[in-house]
Amino acid sequence: METRPFRSVLYIPGSKERALDKATSLPADAIIFDLEDAVAIDEKARARALLAETLQGSDYGQRAKLVRINALSTEWGAHDVNVIAQARPEAILLPKVETAADVEALARLLDARPETAETRIWTMIESPLGALNALEIGRAPRMAGFVMGTNDLAKDMHCRFRADRLPLLAALQIPLLAAKACGLVAVDGVYNAFRDVEGLRAECAQGRDMGFDGKTLIHPAQLDVANEVFAPAPEDITLARRQIEAFDAATARGEGVAVVDGKIVENLHIVTAKQILAKAEAIAQMSE
Ligand code: COA
Ligand code: MG
After folding, report:
1. Cα(133) to centroid of ligand 1, in Å?
2. What's the rounded Cα separation, in Å, for the pair 144 and 121?
3. In the predicted model, is pLDDT for residue 38 greater than 90?
């Protein structure tokens, strides 16, 4: 399991200099520098050059840096890889992925360049076929994470937006299962109404409860809510510590099960408790 936090994953259009600059001080765990849908066609070349320069010249600290390139089937995709490779982002986020072959094609381009020897691949899961093929995509070379593209998914499924996201649940959960099976990070889709903080909070909580690591965000006003909801709550941390203590005491007595607050605590609960503490620790380091 990945302990590095991905609670808040902020999209920044690669063409917006001011936003690129601002992000060096925003409390995001990760940034997706976008060359794809947030950049107009006429701006593609300028954004690519600006982003390569910015990534090499600016200090984004501990924030994970992902670059969303255009699909390799477009006229921009391969060129994006060539220019962005020089900036050594830790991951390239590939959009519109539907099969493992899509990932393999990008992996071959990265294999051909020494600068990208360590670069990981994340993919957008944003179509019915992509969601259904999430397991083969997750098993492809260099794979490290999925980002749910819920707007594209809803468009292709002809489903409606509902606060409970019932129409999208299978499309979210199949990739989530695949992510967990493959040991990948999984980040939930965006909440479009970026001034609606309470709506965002509810959707973050739903994604967290399902098992997502965090949420993709479109505006700085969304950062605090995602950081809070996807972090272990103080009471989760206290409970985790108490469970570990009680279990250690039980083990010392030669017993394999402890009881905390009237609930059994077995070894598997201790695995979760330790993950919660490791995540809290990683988050504390992020804000140092
Ligand atoms: N990342 C970093 N900074 C951002 C930002 C982002 N995604 N969105 C806005 N900001 C900055 C603005 O530059 C502005 O900074 P300033 O006060 O220093 O000038 C500040 O936050 C306030 O912005 P605001 O005026 O409230 O927003 P806006 O009307 O300029 O832009 C959006 C609204 C939605 C167009 C903009 O937030 C955006 O482009 N979001 C990203 C969209 C995207 O990437 N989509 C692709 C994936 S779905
Ligand atoms: Mg999309």
Report:
1. 33
2. 6
3. yes
Model confidence over 117-150: pLDDT tens digits? 999 999 999 999 999 999 999 999 999 999 999 9
pLDDT in tens, 167-213: 999 999 999 999 999 999 999 999 999 999 999 999 999 999 999 99
Position 287 pLDDT exceeds 80 = no
Dist CA 144 CA 279 (whole Å): 18
18 CA: nearest ligand 1 atom: 13
Q: How far is the CA of 25 from the centre of ligand 2 (A)?
A: 26
| Number of the ligand closest to the Cα of 22 | 1
> What is the 186 CA–ligand 1 centroid distance (Å)?
23
Decide if 153 contacts 131 (C-beta within 8 A): yes
Helix axis angle for 150-157 and 169-182, nearest 10°, is 130
Of the candidates 183, 85, 71, 90, the residue with the CA atom closest to the CA atom of residue 130: 71
What is the residue with the minimal CA distance to atom 9 of ligand 1? 219
In this structure, which residue's CA is closest to atom 13 in ligand 1?
Answer: 19
Q: Which ligand gives the minimal distance to the CA of 124?
A: 2
For 153: left if phi > 0, alpha if psi spans -120 to 50, otherwise beta; the answer is alpha
* Count of Cβ atoms closer than 10 Å to residue 176 Cβ: 21
Which one-letter DSSP state was computed for residue 76?
S
Say if pTM beats, i.e. exceeds, 0.85: yes
94 alpha carbon, closest ligand? 2
**Which of 101, 154, 107 lies closest to 126, judged by CA?**
154
Q: Provide the terminal-to-terminal Cα distance of the chain, rounded to the nearest Å.
A: 23
Return the residue whose CA atom lies nearest to atom 37 of ligand 1: 219
pLDDT value, residue 286 = 87
